[in-house]
User: Fold these one by one.
Assistant:
Number 1:
Amino acid sequence: MGSGIVIEGLNIHLGGKWILRDFSLTIKSGEFVGIIGPNGAGKTTLLKALLGLVPVAGGTITFPGTDRKAAGSSLVGYAPQSRQIDETTPLRAWDFVSFGLPHRFRPWLTGQDRRNVEEAMRVTDSERFADKAIGKLSGGERQRLFIAQALVRNPQILLLDEPTSNLDPGAQENLAAVVHSINQKLGITVLLVSHDVNLIAKYAHRILYITKGQYALGTVQQVLQANVLTRLYGAPVEVLKVGSKIIVSTAVADNLKTSICCHDNPEQGVLADVSL
Ligand SMILES: Nc1ncnc2c1ncn2[C@@H]1O[C@H](COP(=O)(O)OP(=O)(O)OP(=O)(O)O)[C@@H](O)[C@H]1O
């Protein structure tokens, strides 16, 4: 079961500049939130703040509904943005996943440890390459292992930083489906950073759109609106509807992909939950 996240008045100042200012939002237990926005907007910094890895200049982060009774469980599992693995690395996929276990560097594993590794590999559909060397696996296969490693301590929240970058469209879709299934079947709260709005629009319950100094949280229909994006970017952004898809003008929105897949008949002007 997932934990909720409540952020109130969060301020983060790094390298002489404000990255997040007066940032407040609530994420419900079991929710899947896609985080999107241009390079340098503060997406990774937000994940690191949730992990307690960056200094906070003000505000609070709490995790209501946390249940940490299960032995060996953790609150947050994290798969960071980029991890280079040399193709000659002589490490079995199974062993790589097991490095996410607590006390992994003691010389033995318990039966429960082994079951946790096997379950994490099962839910990420990576059991079939458990015995292969990680360096010989494809990018999509490695991403499944990174997620499995983040899951091996049964977290209540899963933070994934651009897990689909550098994957071909088919592998992106497969990986997003795996994350969706983890969220649906295990009830884990998921925050996934991506530059691919297609995937986020398809699977996330809500989108958190961050630009430098501004943000909006809401459903796809609430956030992917010309007036909302124009306000976030501080310059005109067009949102066009073509059949079941929405096309966003990239003229001012750096890193925003041209084509955004959304639902049929998006509701108009519903901004009740949007924080600006
Ligand atoms: N430890 C740090 N010290 C100083 N500045 C930092 C630090 N960490 C991040 N920053 C700066 O904070 C800003 C936000 O960085 P962050 O990595 O959160 O952006 P992002 O939205 O994840 O970008 P991208 O999409 O490129 O990954 C950037 O300008 C970055 O240079």
Number 2:
Amino acid sequence: MLLRRVYAALGRSQSSALTKFSTNLSLRRCVNRTQLEFRRTRQNLRLPRMTSDSRSEEMRRREYVRLPPASANKDVLLRGLEAALGSPFSSDPLSPPGNPMVIVISGPSGVGKDSVIKRLQEVREGVHFVVTATSRAQRPGEVDGKDYYFVSKEEFLSMIERNELLEYALVYGDYKGIPKQQIRDFMAKGYDIVLRVDVQGAATLRTILGNSAIFIFLVAESEEALVKRLVDRKTETSEMLLVRIATAKEEVKCMRDFDYVVVNAEGKLDGAVKLVESIIDAEKARTQQRCVRL
Ligand SMILES: Nc1ncnc2c1ncn2[C@@H]1O[C@H](COP(=O)(O)OP(=O)(O)OP(=O)(O)O)[C@@H](O)[C@H]1O
């Protein structure tokens, strides 16, 4: 229909004249393509050949729609083009609205998950880091609703029963889980959601969310760098370090199950955060947006 209008506005003679005299190669290609598409559309839709009635209607339209010359006043030219096309130009955005998304950040212990997320929240607006619910006792200095949602074991079990958790795990005798409602609430406000889980948690989330979420695997630049970082943190005993390092060696093998890998190199935290931001931006530019349903 639109192509027919264009043809009506141009008229066959003008159309071929445009093709003949256009020195702009891309415009010529565009015109050729338009003509080809018009022919194809006609064939695909099996549009009826013009009857004498429809032909006279086209003739009438050609008389009414007189395109102003390109040298005309811009407003006049725009109105003329709109009239020829039969509808006003819309100022609505042409790109799809960037859906709020769920970003799962995982990686071996000590790689810098907390550091990257903390920095990401400082430099980027519209990102909500989901506060995990836990049945663990509150430690001095921890803030309820900021570090964790502290709930009793009974409360946690009833949350499981009511299917209120996206994923949960029993870690050293304490429950930890991701409340679904918090994700729904913030997504409804347009926030992108960041989840921080260990590698096993990420595998569970992949089963639940499939490709609707983005999975990012954080790594250090080398095994040696990771070990040094863990040692420097001075939060683990030698035995705990041994377990964490052995686990990390296994976890790195899961990298291929993730969508992206981001290197958090020594002293280059901002570089890693920038790359995470670029991933989010690129995902927002996808023509086929991921869509999380909980
Ligand atoms: N790019 C970096 N360069 C140097 N040190 C870093 C970098 N990123 C993080 N660190 C440091 O490494 C240590 C571990 O970081 P962090 O606690 O964020 O890791 P994590 O992956 O959240 O660990 P865990 O899973 O054990 O909680 C911290 O002392 C942090 O300050």
